[in-house]
Write a structure and sequence with these properties.
The complex is a heterodimer of chains A (390) and B (166). By secondary structure, chain A is of the alpha+beta class. Helix content of chain A is 51%, strand content 12%. Chain A has a three-stranded antiparallel beta sheet with strand order 1-2-3. In chain B, 21% of the residues lie in helices and 19% in strands. Classes of the chains: A alpha+beta (390), B alpha+beta (166).
Amino acid sequence: MTAISDRRQMAYIANQAADARVNLELEAEGMTLNIGPQHPATHGTLRIVVRLDGEQVIEADPVMGYMHRGYEKLAEVRTYPQVTTLVNRIDWLGSFANEVPFILACERLMEVEAPPRAQWIRTIFHELGRIANVTLFLGDLGVQLGAITPVFLAFRDREYILNQIEAATGGRFHPNFDRIGGLKDDLPAGWIAETKVALDKIREFCNTLEDLLMGNEIFQSRTRGVGVIPADVGLAYGLTGANIRASGVDWDLRRDNPVGLPYDQVDWKVWTHPDGDSFARCWLRMQEVRESCNIVEQLLDTIPGGPIMAKVPRVIKVPEGEAYVATENPLGMMSYYVVSQGGLEPFRVKIRSASFSNMSIAPWLLKGVYMPDVITILASLYFILGDIDR
Amino acid sequence: MPQVPGMLKGLGVTFGTMVNTIKNGSNTVQYPHVKEDPAPRARGVIALHEENCTSCMLCARECPDWCIYIEGHKTLAPPRRAGGKPRSVNKLDRFDIDYSLCMYCGICVEVCPFEALFWTPEYEYSEEKIADLLHDKSRLGKWMETVPDFESYESGAEVKGKKVPR
């Protein structure tokens, strides 16, 4: 064969392939619909391309990255104390929980341990962040189903927790309170008593919401049996946190891997639900808020005295090495892989955020469901866009 | 006893909340007329106590997005004791914080070794033009009046209390 005929043949094949592609697009059934990037059902900018056959979803494809802020790269040009300012903004509803694994990884590299009082207060804020985060979810799920009232109650009662966080740390959303070797400051006088009052308000909120939303027939028929995730599929997609516990997997890093956080000093239990549907995920989160209230209350009672800062140098230089720490965040497993080359800045910070993996199940989960259920399922998966895109 | 339908129960909650709101007043604050009272530790705006600043540039260097601009020069101050040599001190020419960039992390306040920077819970300093958010040292100095005293600590704390220079 000559070179010319070779080229001709290649052109012929390319033409055929292009025709086939056009035909495929013309013949494919259904209609393509974009949900988002700006949609009230998403906490940020998430776009989901769904292909519809009537009301039924044939194919769903989440498009992420509209809110990519490049924290992993930004962290490489900032010193260790400055990084906590950035990682605060990953999951903005439970900010303090983002700082904890990073600080623990740095502490492991520097071989320092925070004093017990600092560990206790860290755990308290870790749980307060979870309460503030999940409280908003509980109210928000109602909005996705058309119930407006729960979200007002959620915003009202979350404010009590945020006020407590502000009173101690100075920031409502971005505490930036955790330091390598301890905490920035101690608690102000009277804080423990006020927090207990706030916790009672949250417990009351849970009871109210149970009457208002959970028992509602419409809510139940819209969520029960919708978006069922079997345990093995959930594990295969890397689901963590309340989403996998709602599928009946008894897996909680707070109990299984309490690194530097005194969860083993507290009497509490890990809730699971066998169903794995939207209702199970919502119910489970509600139980976790109640359990978190118990954890915080016990920690407040047993808080030890003493310093809040271990001995660390004024200019923080982390010795060469690698550390990986994972903790149970409000949304699931969050972990940091910190590589240090001994300088003032981390050489590499890999952030594993929970929502990204939780979101990855969406194409599988949304196949075959009806269009109104898409919103319910996405809301019950509970992702935060800052946590997906980082 | 037949079970109360969940929907009626929910309506009961809503009604109860309404009655509560009528009786005890609402939870919202009518902002421009009634002002919120943030916690004393709230990070609203940074105040500068100019006499304490030695223009050491620590805050400007540690700021995560480098929004503090400092310029200074050395001058001779009169000696402390009679007959001594004149001291060389750093005089602050410019101290600007660009609040359009500030992330309100508080690292500058924390690293200041001479206690020249303080947080105040004031929050009303919005501007129509973004360039006006650059506060110079006289404007930052004026915030000093609003700095609250440091609170005392919860029992069991071993942190030394600090004082605000007035």
